[in-house]
Amino acid sequence: MDLEAIIKCRQLGVYDPPPNAATALGSSATGMALSRAYWQYRCAFEPMLRRVAGVLMMLVTLTIIWCEATIFTGVNPDLSPFSLLIRWEQDQGTAME
Known about the structure:
70% of the residues lie in helices and 0% in strands. It is mainly α. It has one domain. Helix 1 (2-12) packs across helix 3 (29-69). The longest helix is centred in the middle third of the chain and has 41 residues, at 29-69. The protein is elongated and about 65 Å long. The chain starts with a helix and ends in a 5-residue tail after the last helix. The mean pLDDT is 80.
């Protein structure tokens, strides 16, 4: 029931919570406001947040693959972004020990 309502909400662009969702947090003004905020998060912000997280994870994965692929290239040239970051921190004197 909840997923069907979320799909309808996304398709129609109406982010008001369904009538049965308002009673879950109480019928007070605070409960209604929390219910509406949660519903807007589930309908509008959660898909965007998941896409951003997916892109960030993809970039980290590609960076790790790049680092692993450049291990056997030798010391010169140093192509690993993580290695360059560590060397830069050592040069700055802020390396974690």
